[in-house]
């Protein structure tokens, strides 16, 4: 039996009851070392398999191998396991191996929602998620989605917005969006949501400081109606007050 | 003090600890009658203000008025309060009234995520949320977003997909998408996620039965890579197994 569990952005209280329960029911916990650290005190009595970054296939294969021995395994992702997380890969591996192992995907609060509650209410209207990592997706596909999302006036949440190896991806994405968006379009940046280093920045398309953004940052770009009021970013739904 | 709380799709165990805590801390609970019913046993000792459908402004204004008297109010939305929920409206009202009332938005599991875990892993790649309700958004704007989302090959989650008054909106939306998508594109339908009437349907663009869809249904349309395997809908992230 495998639980694929999203533990939310960081804080325990942003986890669902179902996620806590799945972790409690598991014999073995499998996850990326950084996420394992976030739940350390929940898994003191468990067997733990930690792996490093970019070891997703090994990690999921290991989880499947352990489940084959009859143990109950919880595979941990941050945020929601089904959004750029481990859920798809676990299902793909089981599919390929035709293993009749039970799987339960456990819902979590994804990074965009975790960041949005800190910013105010930026996701009140149609929005999309785009990952700016081109490790698994050709950059041309990402560019096309960024362009069309801007043209559609979606609020856009950028996952994996910027890393050392991809220092200019966010800048390129915003340059593409500039054709359709005003330079004053509000942008909300939340670093390390729900962790002790959490930091929130409200800025605009033309004033963003890219140095404020790294891999553990959520960047939310508003639509034409989004505004900043005090320390909050708000996208109106369309009610007339 | 106002908490704006997302209670998730339905089941208690899909709520976050933070949401439970906010409800516990509140003196008064304000919400749409259907959502209030979902958390009845949590709020037996509370003052409760229930209002009917389409009374969003009245409901939020009432919550603000009660908070002005010094009471702690929890405004309840299903799913996440910041996604087509009450968070934006509460902040807009406070903004307009320049009331210095504390507000905390509490994250929840939105309907797309709740449905996705039941379907498998359909949201593993870039996706968007589009509401098909034209009560607050012109239909032309919705049509444009549907077209561009299909062209971008986003996985698309339709909120408010179909009601008696809008019986053909989903059909129109899928017809628009047909220009860019194969008729075999998988569609996942989940009705009443996390409630006792829950039902899951896997189908395709050309075989969907619109009668399976109503207002408490989430409809997820796959991208070019999405496939159905057994009783699961999976969108690969791009790993090579």
TrEMBL record, chains A, B:
Pathway: Cofactor biosynthesis; adenosylcobalamin biosynthesis. Pfam families: TP_methylase (PF00590). Its EC number is 2.1.1.131. This is Precorrin-3B C(17)-methyltransferase. Keywords: Cobalamin biosynthesis, Methyltransferase, S-adenosyl-L-methionine, Transferase. NCBIfam families: cobJ_cbiH (TIGR01466). InterPro entries: 4pyrrol_Mease (IPR000878), 4pyrrol_Methylase_sf (IPR035996), 4pyrrole_Mease_sub1 (IPR014777), 4pyrrole_Mease_sub2 (IPR014776), Cbl_synth_CobJ/CibH_dom (IPR006363), Precorrin_MeTrfase (IPR051810). CDD domains: Precorrin_3B_C17_MT. The keyword S-adenosyl-L-methionine applies. The keyword Transmembrane does not apply. Residues 1-208 form the Tetrapyrrole methylase domain. It comes from the Bacteria. SUPFAM superfamilies: Tetrapyrrole methylase. It comes from Paenibacillus larvae. One of its GO terms (molecular function) is precorrin-3B C17-methyltransferase activity. One of its GO terms (biological process) is methylation.
